[in-house]
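Annex B. Sample input.
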Amino acid sequence: MHKIIIYSLAALLLSGCMTKSKMAYVQDVRQNKDLGREFVNEQQRALIQPFDEIHVSISSFGEDAPEALTLGEGRLGGRNSTDYSLIAYRVDEDGFIKLPVLGRTEVAGKTLEKAAEDIARELESYLYSPSVKLSFVNKNVTVLGMVGRPGRYFFPGENINIFQALGMAGDIEEFGNRQDVVVLRENNGRITKNVVDLTDKGIITSDFYYLKSEDVIYVEPLNRRIWGIDRVPFSLILSAATTSLLIVDFVRRNNL
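Annex B, continued. Sample output.
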């Protein structure tokens, strides 16, 4: 009888423990074999898409004194995403933005650098030595589920990888499922559901290592979390089990 109690107690305690294979990211079954190894996953340059928000800064320097035509940076002191969104140009469904002097200008399908070069070339007829800088505004990913701080997160660069996004969201919690992380991605009006394993080193070279703006990452709970095992009062159970073992041993020794 007491053996059954011991085995049951051991199984219960083990069920509440998280193994390294469930917790560690980018694992290799051959310990330390990948230290110093290079994984190739080149970042694809982000292309401007319809409905993107673009911040445009145009400067023209005269022969005698600098004369600036600035769209954005000189008008607002704040640098958060809301401030820039107020002065950003939204790309319309046909891929154009409407600029002063130039009017409707096509930018979709181009990198920021290429679009800036094309705009600067067109402005040469109106401004002396124009300089154009473009940047994305309000690029974001949404992280939900078993993370420290679920929410929508903005990032300033062209790309962000999945670990950076999870880091902004406070990382995956103890009972979050790192092996079945869902990534929802929209492409040309179609949404795909994809599942990635963050404990597998193959994530580094996958198509979902670098996220796209508007991606949604959902971290599911492990089964033990669903059943509430993480909330079991182990100290109380251990105390009760120990008391039961003592009673059983006392009865057995005294043939009661």
